[in-house]
Write a structure and sequence with these properties.
Blueprint: H1 8-14, E1 27-28, E2 34-35, E3 41-42, H2 70-105, H3 109-113, H4 116-144, H5 151-183, H6 194-201, H7 205-239, H8 248-271, H9 279-299, H10 312-332, H11 339-373, H12 390-415, E4 418-419, H13 422-452, H14 457-486, E5 492-493
Antiparallel strand pairs: 1-2, 2-3, 4-5
């Protein structure tokens, strides 16, 4: 896919039609025909070289009906189930350990002394998760339309994307540190850490340098590690004919939180003894110089240069929303036992499911636009079974994530981390269902809205969607704890 935002002329042809049946893995060959993974091509005169008979872009796109017999539904959703279910299950396991780690990290000396570090955790986690998901979505679309098949273009796009990632992480994490410093002076603190945290709140400039240096360093290191991993994952998916849209966003969402939280905890612990020295300032200067170098490289890379000026507004919008999430976490992490462990999953898993939907819809829109741009008003699908409609995709993802949530609660019980009463499990699953449904509805509406506004959903949708789901998930969890508390039910940590 071209990294520029969707062209207005082609967008007008696509935005008001269904893109349910657009083939997701195809590319335009040098002769202008739409090439398929099996070597067949579409052209305007002859259609596909297989036996497909259903035109996709002949003035309007035919609907893939949701009320198909079950025998016809399964072939459509098989790829989503087979590829997304393991990714979402891995997401849950990763989020499980992230939640447990957050519960531990929130009581470390660095977090107790500098309260802004607790407030900024959701912001930094959401920031890195957003950037990694943006990266995976862009590369997933590029892979599905065949742009990563050319080795030279693949290297240029990957290295350019990694350099861009450094510029984005350092820039937004610095501003997030500024916001957390302001919020830390006004947010009430609950629990035994209140006295110690007041010291951090009144430290002024040393506190700001400490928080900024910690967040920028952790975000930069996370970008290097996770960015490289996500690029490798997308290339491997393309090589083995797996749709990265079903795998990469969920993996980026879960690993981004875990790795970033580990790095944030480690860096803050290392820097806290040097808080009132020049060392945090020097470290911040090194990170900024590295990001400037990455900016210069990105500017010279034609494949990612447009992204230097695009996609910033959703990142900053997501940062503001995540600041609200940080306030919720700061206020309730000490009030309810096990809140941190449960909050990560009730926010992260619905967000991961929604990110898969955004990535699939975006790829379909880009593929339809690409076909129109190359003069292919009608072509037949290479598959005997059409791609699932957005509604069917949403139902499939919802059906996948609910059992995964049950697995998560079962793992908590088996590990003995939390003592969960049966009534709490029932109520929490009900709220989790609401969170997943909200995530999928928001994902679809947001993707369609951004496309109609000539904004690339790969860059604009995921940050806002992820931040909203973090906030909605934690608010739903607070409501869940309030209800069970009124019923006299308590969740207890056993270890």
């Amino acid at each position: 896919m071209n990294q520029n935002s969707p062209g207005s002329q082609s967008t007008e042809d696509i935005e008001m039609i269904d893109i349910d049946d657009v083939p997701l893995r195809s590319k335009v060959s040098q002769n202008g025909r739409l090439a398929l993974p099996n070597g067949d091509t579409y052209d305007e005169d002859y259609g596909a070289s297989d036996d497909g008979s259903r035109g996709l872009l002949s003035g309007s796109i035919e609907r893939s009906r949701f009320d198909l017999p079950m025998g016809k539904i399964w072939p459509q959703v098989k790829g989503i189930v087979v590829e997304s279910a393991p990714a979402l299950l891995m997401t849950t396991v990763s989020l499980l350990f992230t939640g447990k780690l957050l519960d531990k990290v929130s009581h470390w000396d660095a977090m107790r002394q500098v309260d802004q570090l607790i407030i900024i955790i959701p912001v930094v986690l959401n920031l890195n998760g957003n950037l990694e998901m943006n990266l995976s979505a862009r590369l997933g679309t590029a892979a599905n339309v065949g742009e990563l098949d050319d080795p030279k273009m693949r290297r240029s796009m990957i290295f350019g994307s990694l350099a861009l990632l450094q510029v984005q992480t350092v820039s937004v994490s610095f501003i997030a540190a500024c916001i957390s410093l302001v919020l830390g002076r006004f947010v009430p603190r609950n629990g035994p850490a209140m006295v110690a945290s007041e010291v951090g709140r009144k430290s002024g400039l040393p506190t700001f340098v400490m928080v900024a240096s910690t967040t920028m360093t952790a975000a930069s290191l996370s970008g290097i590690l996770l960015g490289s991993f996500m690029c490798t994952l997308v290339v491997i998916c393309r090589k083995y004919d797996r749709d990265p849209d079903n795998i990469a966003p969920a993996v980026a969402s879960c690993l981004g939180d875990l790795v970033t939280l580990i790095l944030l905890g480690v860096v803050s612990t290392i820097l806290i003894p040097f808080m009132h020295t020049i060392f945090p300032f020097l470290l911040a200067c090194v990170v900024i110089c590295a990001s400037v170098t990455c900016f210069m490289y990105t500017w010279r890379n034609e494949h990612v240069r447009p992204l230097l000026t695009e996609g910033w507004s959703p990142l900053f919008g997501a940062m503001v929303i995540s600041s609200g999430t940080g306030i919720v976490l700061d206020m309730f992490v000490s009030r309810y036992e096990g809140f941190a462990v449960l909050a990560i999953v009730i926010s992260g898993l619905p967000g991961a499911a929604g990110s898969i939907l955004v990535s699939r819809l975006s790829t379909s829109l880009h593929t339809a636009k690409l076909a129109l741009e190359h003069g292919l008003p009608s072509f037949a699908t290479q598959h005997k079974h059409p791609e699932p409609s957005p509604l069917l995709t949403m139902a499939t993802l919802l059906a996948i994530t609910l059992p995964v949530e049950v697995v998560f609660l079962s793992i908590l019980d088996l590990l003995g981390w939390l003592e969960l009463p049966f009534m709490f499990i029932v109520i929490s699953i009900a709220f989790f269902f609401c969170a997943v449904l909200s995530s999928l509805v928001i994902a679809r509406l947001l993707t369609n809205l951004l496309w109609s506004l000539n904004r690339d959903p790969d860059s604009y949708a995921l940050p806002v969607h992820s931040a909203l789901m973090d906030l909605i998930g934690q608010l739903l969890l607070v409501l869940c704890f309030e209800i069970v508390s009124r019923l006299g039910i308590k969740v207890r940590k056993t270890i």
